[in-house]
């Protein structure tokens, strides 16, 4: 396993490489994880700088860290200040990228990447309160994947107890966007998981997912990618949900999102939200929650 500086798409960055897989993060904006896949192979992530913008903010794609705000989770401070360069630190066996300070909220966002074995990466997403005042919120980790023909996504739901429920939030309209319909053939709720087969119709859902797993099966690239995080049922999450997905118009991307608990940060404190990323050869069917969970056994 190697962690070393590199160049990607004319950006300075760092590559974290195992025997088979590669993850590349860029440091002169964001920070962003810009590439994920087999070393020298296709990128599982959307990466299109300059194509999808909101004012000065550039989606770019890849993986990013946002902050949630209690009672207004996607507000204007969510987007700043992604266009500025980051600090990059390479330590033994891992790297950390820390974004610029937000001049209004006085926070900084970043992540560290550490390969755990040939198929598993630890992504520690975090926010730092750099002001001398309090701030409140949570860590929101968003990964823009590029769905190819036959891609399938799955979210295991329920806790398996004798009193088993889960919550799903449907977005009818948001920030000039709108969902195709609640009755959307792309999205199926089964016995123990929600399955998404993107068909190019814009839709967005948030879910309470006790297992904390969202997975992607990519038949074209013969790979399965999964993200997992810990869910605390006694914590406060945005709209009561710890996972979300967004299907973009014409399948330009599918976002795999996880949210951490919201907390109050005193000056100098950090809030961390850890994800484990699994990459395995073969496009798993993901027909049941057990298959998604098996990615992390």
- Helix-strand pattern, N to C? EEEEEEEEEEEEEEEEEEEEEEEEEH
Q: How many β-strand stretches?
A: 25
Helix/strand-derived category reads mainly beta
Helical content stands at under 10%
CATH topology: Beta-galactosidase, Chain A, domain 5
Query: Low-confidence segments, ≥5 residues, pLDDT <50?
Result: none
Short description:
By secondary structure, the chain is mostly beta strands.
Polypeptide structure, described:
The chain is mostly beta strands. The protein starts with a strand and ends with a helix. It is globular, with a radius of gyration of 18 Å. The chain has one domain: Beta-galactosidase, Chain A, domain 5, CATH 2.70.98.10. It has a 10-stranded antiparallel sheet with strand order 8-9-10-11-25-21-20-13-18-17. The chain is built from 1 helix and 25 strands.
How do the helices and strands line up, and which of them pair or pack?
Layout: E1 2-8, E2 11-17, E3 21-26, E4 32-38, E5 53-54, E6 57-58, E7 62-68, E8 87-91, E9 94-98, E10 107-117, E11 120-129, E12 135-145, E13 152-156, E14 168-170, E15 173-174, E16 177-178, E17 187-189, E18 193-196, E19 203-207, E20 213-218, E21 223-228, E22 243-247, E23 254-259, E24 263-265, E25 270-281, H1 289-293
Antiparallel strand pairs: 1-2, 2-3, 3-4, 5-6, 7-12, 8-9, 9-10, 10-11, 11-25, 12-23, 12-24, 13-18, 13-20, 14-19, 15-16, 17-18, 19-22, 20-21, 21-25, 22-23
Question: What descriptors fit this protein?
Answer:
mainly beta; Beta-galactosidase, Chain A, domain 5; 1 helix; 25 strands; globular
């Amino acid at each position: 396993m190697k962690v070393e500086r590199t160049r990607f798409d004319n950006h300075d960055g760092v590559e974290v490489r195992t025997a088979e897989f590669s993850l590349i993060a860029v440091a002169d904006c964001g920070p962003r994880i810009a590439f994920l896949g087999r070393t020298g192979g296709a990128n599982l992530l959307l990466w299109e700088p300059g194509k999808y913008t909101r004012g000065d903010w550039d989606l770019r794609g890849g993986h990013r860290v946002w902050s949630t705000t209690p009672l207004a989770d996607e507000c204007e401070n969510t987007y700043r200040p992604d266009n500025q360069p980051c600090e990059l630190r390479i330590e033994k066996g891992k790297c950390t990228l820390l974004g610029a300070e937000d001049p209004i909220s006085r926070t900084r966002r970043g992540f560290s990447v550490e390969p755990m074995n040939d198929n598993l990466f630890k992504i520690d997403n975090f926010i730092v309160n750099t002001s001398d005042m309090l701030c409140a919120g949570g860590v929101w980790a968003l990964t823009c994947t590029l769905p190819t023909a036959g891609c399938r996504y799955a979210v295991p739901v329920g806790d398996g107890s004798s009193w088993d429920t889960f919550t799903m939030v449907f977005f009818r309209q948001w920030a000039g966007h709108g969902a195709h319909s609640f009755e959307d053939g792309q999205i199926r709720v089964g016995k123990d998981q929600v399955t998404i087969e993107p068909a190019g119709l814009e839709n967005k859902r948030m879910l309470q997912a006790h297992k904390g797993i969202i997975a992607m099966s990519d038949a074209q690239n013969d790979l399965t990618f999964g993200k997992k995080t810990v869910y605390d049922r006694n914590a406060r999450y945005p709209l009561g949900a710890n996972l979300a997905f967004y299907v973009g118009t014409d399948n330009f991307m599918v976002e795999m999102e996880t949210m951490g608990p919201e907390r109050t940060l005193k000056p100098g404190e950090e809030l961390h939200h850890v994800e484990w990323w699994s990459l395995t050869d073969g496009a798993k069917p993901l027909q049941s929650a057990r298959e998604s969970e098996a990615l992390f056994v």
